Amino acid sequence: MNLLLDVLTTSAILYIVSAGLLLIFGVMKIVNFAHGAFLTVGAYASLVSARLGLPPVAGFAMALLVGAVVGMAIEWLVVRPLYARPLDAILATWGLAIVLGQLITLAFGREVQFVPSPVDGTFAFAGGEYSAYRLLLVGAAVVLGTVLALLLTRTRIGLVTRAVIMNEQLARGLGIHAGLVRFFTFAAGAGIGSLAGALITPLSSVDPNMGVPWLVNAFMLVMVSGVSMASLLVATLVFGAAQVLLSTFVSPILGGLAIAVLAAVTLRIRPKGFARD
Amino acid sequence: MTEPLVIATPPRSGAPLRLPGRALGLFGASIAVALVAPWLLDTYTLNILIRAMFFAMLALTVDVLWGYTGYLTFGQSAFFGAGAYAAGLVFTHLGFDPGHVWLAAGLAVLAAAAIAGLTGWLSFYSGSTPLYASVISLVLPIVMTQLLFSGGTFTGSSSGLTGYTMPDLSLEAWFRIAAGALVLLTAASWLVVRSDGGRLLAAIRDNEMRCAYLGIDTALLKIALLVVTAAIAGAAGFGYASFSGVVAPELAGFVFGTEVIIWVALGGRGTLIGPVIGALLIEWASAYLSGSLPFVWKLFVGIAFVLVIVLLPQGLLPPLLRVFGRAKRADLPALTVTLTEAPLAAHGTDATQPVIELRGVAKHFGSHQVLSGIDFVAHRGELVSLIGPNGAGKTTLMRCMSDGAERSAGTVRIAGHDIRHAPAHACVGFGLGRKFQTATIFETLTVAECLRMARVRIAAPSWWRRSTMLALPPYALEVLRATELDHKLDVQARHLSHGEQQALELAMVLALEPQVVLLDEPTAGLTLEERSRIGRVLVDLAGRFGLCLLLVEHDLDFVREISSRIVVLHQGKLALEGTVQEVVDSELVKTIYAGSGHD
Amino acid sequence: MFKFRSLSMAAVCALLPLSFAALAQGDAPIRIGMPVGLSGANSVVAPSVVQSAQLAVEEINAAGGVLGRKLALEVADDASGAVGAQKAFDALIFQKKVDVLISMETSAARNAGLPIVARGKVPYIYTSFYEGRSCSPWMYVNAWVPEQQVPPIVDHFMRAKNAKTFFLVGSDYSFGRGMLEFTKKYAQGKGATIVGEEYLPMDGSDWTAVISKIRAAKPDALVTSTAGGAPNVTLTKQLRAAGINIPYGNLAVDEGTAKSMGANAQGIYISASYVTGIDSPANKKFLAAMTKKFGADLKTPNDLSVPEYEAVYAYKLAVEKAKGTDPEKVVKALGEVAVDGPRGRIAMTQQRHAPLTMYLAQVQADGSVKVIDSFKDVDAGTQCPAMK
Fold first, then answer.
1. Which of B254, B475, B530, C190 has the fewest CB atoms lying closer than 10 Å?
2. Is residue A276's pLDDT more than 80?
């Protein structure tokens, strides 16, 4: 039972962290290597909010907002000129991650800091108890996924975005302002990334380099999911389970490798990954 | 008999390697600096520079892979770390003595090469994309660091290995060794990159598909390149570990791999000297500035990196050189090349055997059947035109003929060889040449270099020399002469007109000495004059030289003028086949092209 | 609120004009190099260590310096790891040309720095507790080793808590493995069983799999030895979030970090050579001086920062005894002087290590530390048989 919960919560965390990156990759076909930095920005936003004495929800809201604003600036200044050079876009966003990291260090110092958990203690149920906050994150992942799905399928903005995802040239030809769609998508992806950072921080710690390990895992998951939110769900469940199982039964170090290696192998066998077509 | 075309002054004989005086001067000056510097610099600076020089060797390998071949790699650090750990492990667990130094060095190079072979096999295969190759190069250092972490006390895990006995050389000696190695490595890389073989790297970067259709096994080439650069990186890592006495998992990691990319990008990708200077300068400045301005320095580097990628992708060195008045061509100074005629190899097949044979070839995408039941044969000297409305499957049929992995059913034989599932370059090896609808050439290479690439399969290029002679088969020479490209051998392909580019591509395909040539809409975008010229050329190729030509064409008049046979493709099937007379005036063709209803 | 990470930088900048002034008087300052983990795993405790050093330097300078010369502090970041330490040691020894290195670092950093110390021929006082048996002709240690620190915890668990099975968790490097290796031998020697031993890399922060294993093994007691700051906090956070409340002995946490863990730290057992509650005039004087100098910015003095304070004084005494900063004479003198500090009388006379008074304590709900038992002048054991 514990193992199952470990798998569920780990997958939920991976989903939350990767959702923003997938949104950006799907619409703009660009891999945003600054995603780890957005995670960090969100974590520090929640740190600020905690220091100000605000309730945890304010921290999450702040993270979302700050991330979106930073994302807008980045899209306008850096990402837009590199639309035709995707490999260079990876590098430029990585450079931005370094810049963001240094700015954070200048502002907050480079030592490791901590944010108190909004929910302490365990949740008891038949068969044992489990960390309440981790269980809450499963809920958060479900909410996030549902909200995104609804936004994409039930709203006009979502329809327009999906059109751009499927065929940008055609969408443009139909009068859709693709540039604006990309601008807002990047902001949304950045905001979600920051929110993810704020959500995962109570489980560990905050420091200027915390985003890097998450970046790699999120990147591999996105590669394997193509452009579909649904296949991201499948990917996080399958690979999250693999990570937990390997960590528990073999070694935590090799478990940390699971996602990256499995994703690479999957792509080799089936270049579309988990996407349907 | 055609005379050889002599274009420029005859080549100087006897000089195997002609190096520009500038290069030799730079080489000599660098060696001098390497010898003298230890007497002028203080201990701390020497320390930093020695370490930086080993890093610069790593940066060189990244430049060759990324700047010259177009393979963005985050993982060269993994090979560096492998070499460093080879040294650390041997010296820690086996102790130190001269024999162990050789063992460690050998292990460093072999381990790095083996890992590279595996990585290359994973990354470069038919159908892999540049993004996937970069993804693998990202996963590699992560796997390496995790493996090092899991090594417990054997690899030292998080602390790494320290305090092992090292070669007892003075700081000055180490400086001379490292600097000397760096200068030699840079010189060797420069020689290779400017050589005829080195142009292959640029060709792959410019247009990998064209390389495949010139019979070049690009996957194998890239794997070999990766293995060689990895061995060099491993050797650099070995040197670093032997000098510094500390090996830690960070040396094999992803973050370090991206730092190397930053040095190369800032220095100037594809310039060799740029990355070396970039690595040395940035490492040296970091050591001094990160003490007093720790965050601001790294922030500055990050901002510079982003600016360079967005605004100055070629890096900082080329613009700097231009400022100092040394405006040089981005790649290489032109070399005057002489064309000669190559003797034609005798073909194994005679006129009665088909040069290309299709039996029951079919292709479907999911449930959509594009081609079905194609039976087709062609012989030497035939000029067959393939016509049909758009969507009939003409280009798909061409693909099925030229790439064994394309078709869903049936057999294809080229010059008697069953292509089975062979990739494009193997099909070319059987005797096939393919000319694409859009001019598929190497943009940054000169006309002469493009042609030399086309001869790679027949005349392997030197990896350190630049030849002044280029031998081409007579029909390729004809094409060049007819279009006056023989006077433009030094011009970069991207500066040619559309018609000239098409002619160049044709000449390249002919340079392969193929038995059958597939041409996809050869008249597309040509002027009337160019069209009739190409018509004459094609007729000549079939009639005089006995090549088998297969054309896909829309221009019925052109088809009528030159073809010996016409094949009509309609809705994925061979609808009609026969002489020009039989086909052009048939009801079917009239219906298809006049558009009066579809069957 | 958003503080610029400039405490140490400010110290250096403040002391620089001081040193120039000293130069003007014709007496160059004595430079103390301090490579410390300003970033990375140790960054949580590093500020407190720097503060201790700053207080010691200020006090000594105010009292006339050492042999008439002022002390100057040079801090460098070793990123709590081997590669960073190499850069920091190189910069301090060959660029800033310090006269002595006095610092607390991770074992990874120390091991990487020792060869450079040997090449540079600089005395090095290592002020951090560690796994023992690290020896160099240039190094002295004034903090505890496992022989001094582990027995109180294990003995208490076995006697007072009836623990017969132990689970060990650590960071995967020389300190983590060394401490737990000693613990394993000691506990097994006393008749206990080790039901699990798990390691994570130094920068690892996801203990989910380890916690699942602890739950499955159902041990009577848990003993951990992770790297300095961050791993301690993340492990404790996640342990408590998973509801694990067995007796928990943490071999590597200091009072300051325990305070920052808040309620999660309650119940943790620590064994240390310093706790703020030590009832001695020297300690009270020290605490008053720290509070006066740093006020609201004071980081809790702890078992990693107080030895730094005492080491600076030890160096002062050694230089005075050697009548100069000649490295070899100072190294010899360091083994002969004794400092009366907050921890009592410290003399590094046992094979480059020092006998220490140890305190077994438990963290309370309000973050304070309550002493349960104390052991006077515990032997350091055989650390460096080659050094007499």
1. C190
2. no
Q: Which domain holds residue A244?
A: 2-109+120-269
Amino acid at residue number C235: L
Contact C141, C161 (CB under 8 A): no
Chain A residues touching residue B306 (CB < 8 angstroms): 78, 92, 95-96, 99
Residue A115 lies in a domain: no
Domain B379-408+423-594, CATH class in plain words: alpha beta
Q: B563 and B385 in contact (C-beta within 8 Å)?
A: yes
Q: Does C133 touch chain A (CB under 8 A)?
A: no
Asked if residue C154 and residue C78 are part of one domain, the reply reads: no
Report CA-CA distances (Å) from B131 to A75, A256, B353, B406. Answer: 21, 23, 44, 22
Q: Which of C146, C180, C167, C148 has its CA nearest to residue C215?
A: C167
A121 in B contact zone (CB under 8 Å):
no
What is the DSSP pairing of strand C356-363 with strand C269-272? Answer: antiparallel
> What is the value of ipTM here, to two decimals?
0.88
Q: How many angstroms separate the CA atoms of B509 and A48, rounded?
A: 65
pLDDT tens by residue, chain C, 388 residues: 445 455 555 555 555 555 554 444 447 899 999 999 888 778 888 999 999 999 999 999 999 999 999 999 999 988 888 888 998 999 999 989 999 999 999 988 999 999 899 889 999 999 999 988 899 999 999 999 999 999 999 999 999 999 999 999 998 888 889 999 999 999 999 999 999 999 888 778 888 889 989 988 999 999 999 886 778 888 988 898 888 889 999 998 888 788 877 788 899 999 999 999 888 999 999 999 999 999 998 988 999 999 999 999 999 999 999 999 999 999 999 999 999 999 999 999 989 999 999 999 999 888 788 899 999 889 888 898 887 6
Burial tier of A79 (Cβ tally within 10 Å: 0-12, 13-18, 19+): buried
* B246 near C CB under 8 A: yes
C80 within 8 A of C42, measured Cβ to Cβ: yes
A86: left (phi over 0), alpha (psi -120 to 50) or beta: alpha
Residue of C173, C177, C179 best to disrupt the B interface, most CBs of B under 10 A: C173
The pLDDT tens digits for B297-331 are: 889 999 999 999 999 888 888 888 777 655 444 44
Q: How far apart are the C-alpha atoms of C2 and B404, rounded to whole Å?
A: 64
The answer to the question of residue A275 being in a domain is no
Residue of C6, C8, C208 to mutate for A, most A C-beta atoms under 10 A:
C208
Say whether both C153 and C33 belong to one domain.
no
> In total, how many domains does chain A have?
1
| Residues C39 and C21 grouped into a single domain | yes
Q: Work out the burial of residue B2: count CB atoms within 10 Å of its CB; fewer than 13 is exposed, 13-18 middle, 19 or more buried.
A: exposed
Q: Mutual orientation of helices A229-249 and A132-154 as an angle, nearest 10°?
A: 160
Evaluate if pTM is beyond 0.90. Answer: no
Dihedral angle sign, alpha carbons of residues C356, C357, C360, C366: negative
Pairing of strands C165-171, C221-225: parallel
Q: Which CATH number do you get for residue A185? A: 1.10.3470
Domain that holds residue C367: 146-275+358-378
Give me the residue from C91, C114, C201 closest to B157, CB to CB. Answer: C201
- What per-residue confidence (pLDDT) applies to B291? 66
| Cα A237 from Cα A259, distance rounded (Å) | 11
The CATH number for B41-323, chosen from 1.20.1510, 3.30.420, 2.60.40, 1.10.3470, is: 1.10.3470
**Beta-carbon contacts of residue B442 (< 8 Å; ≥ 6 apart):** B202, B203, B206, B207, B210, B449, B450, B453, B493
pLDDT tens digits along B68-117: 998 999 999 999 999 999 999 999 998 888 889 999 999 999 999 999 99
Chain C positions touching B47 (Cβ under 8 A) are 90, 94
